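Quick note —
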Amino acid sequence: MEPIDALKRREEAAIHWLVDSFSDRLLKAATLMLSDQHLAEDAVQECFAAAITHLDKFRGDSSVYTWLYTILLRCCGQLRKRSSRERVLPSEAMDGMLIQQGAQRAEKDQVMNWTVRNAVRKLKYKQREAVVLYYFEEFSIKEIAAILGEPEGTVKNRLHRARKALEKALEKEDSYVAERAF
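Predicted structure written out below.
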């Protein structure tokens, strides 16, 4: 159960619960969005700072995670804009996450996982946002629309265009990956 009242009273135990419960998942999502571990860590830190500052504005219309994720997306967008003059290279941390996951999978699955995530990193930001929310975070179209403040049709369009771009990118990479990814 989410200790909403305790959070709104800014009780230390509730704030620890908030950070402990959601930091890993938010970091993974931010890393996927930003393709940079250090920027992702900054985004998560800014997300928690903003959330704690504005706890009184949480209405309970959604889950705490959905609310945090909305804040995280805003933080990722702001950090992306701030660092847009710098060229963001594929994240070593992302590769590290893939290696950890790959230790439990067959070699072909490792290659497929890395190739798909690398292709996702190359999508336009708005498409990547939709793909991460839908496929990695498993939000529904309706939830994504609410998080992004966009109509459901826009979300569906972004996902459609992203899938087409990913299929095209993956066909270039490897027919094995393209056949199994979508």
